[in-house]
Amino acid sequence: MNTKHLRQSNDDRGTGRIEAFSDGVIAVAITLLILDVHVPTVQTGLLQALLNQWPAYLGYVTSFLVITIFWANHHNMFRHIQQVDYALLLINSLFLMCIAFIPFATALLTMYITSTSPTEQHTAAIVYGATLLLNGILFNSIWWYAVWKRRLVQRDLDAQAVQRITRGYLFGLPFYALSIVLSLINVELSLAFFILIDLIYFLPIRFLRSGRPDIFSVGAQQAPEGHLPHAHAKHELPKAAREPV
Fold first, then answer.
1. Euclidean distance between CA atoms 102 and 106, whole angstroms
2. How many domains is the chain partitioned into structurally?
3. Which parts of the chain fold into alpha helices (H)?
4. Whole-angstrom Cα distance, residue 113 to residue 63?
């Protein structure tokens, strides 16, 4: 009886439910982005009408990549977190709340980027940049809390690996903060900077890899010859040499 109760308690503290819930919220948020792209209702000049929607296309692609980056890093983070508590659930929920806000911030930006009023342009760009910065801060808060005193990760997790992962997750925060400053100067420049951030994460550019989390580096290990490849077990941590840098 005690063994059954202990097993149920451990299952309740596992990460399966929080990961599934997070994936669902992120999937909804990334899907809502397409709602800002509308089908033109014109009798003639369809091509021009489509081209006039370039802000919606730009916002859709940029925010889709941003949410994908957050999702991939969130997925990789929970490869190292083995259990959850109430505080982690709360922090993760706040992160998801901000993720769900990205479609609104994107729609605001795409609507006012072509405004004739510079004030409206700057305001919309600042709201967008602040939304991404807040997402980054809350994302890092999940990791900071999980590794605090090794409470929610495996206690034998290499300290140097923790430091490398922490630096990697901090990588985007200065860029998002800088984008807000650029929004005060030039909105188009800040948008180009958001795209640059996405490219830094996605493209395998060697001189940009330093300090950047390699979001797609953690996967199934290469199997020895004659064996089928297999993924890491839930609580099995990859070697420190495979950590994002």
1. 6
2. 1
3. 2-12, 16-32, 46-51, 54-77, 86-112, 118-147, 159-170, 172-185, 187-202
4. 15
Q: How far apart are CA 95 and CA 101, in angstroms?
A: 10
> Collapsing DSSP states into helix, strand and coil, what is residue 233?
coil
Residue type present at position 91: I
* DSSP 3-state of 244: coil
User: What is the identity of the amino acid at 159?
Assistant: A
pLDDT tens readout for residues 178-228: 999 999 888 888 888 888 888 887 775 554 444 555 554 444 333 333 333
Any domain includes 75: yes
pLDDT band at 101 (very low <50, low <70, confident <90, very high): very high
Nearest in space to 214 (alpha carbons), one of 169, 172, 245: 245
Q: Select from 79, 131, 74 the least CA-distant residue to 102.
A: 131
Distance CA 55, CA 187 (A): 12
For residue 124, give Cα distances in angstroms to 117, 171, 181.
Answer: 11, 24, 13
Task: Give the residue numbers spanning the domain of 107.
Answer: 15-36+51-215
- Is residue 167, in this structure, part of any structural domain at all? yes
Q: Phi and psi for 236 in degrees, rounded to 5? A: -95, 120
Give domain status of residue 178, yes or no: yes
- 96 part of a folded domain: yes
> What pTM did the predictor assign?
0.78
Asked if 132 contacts 176 with a C-beta cutoff of 8 angstroms, the reply is yes
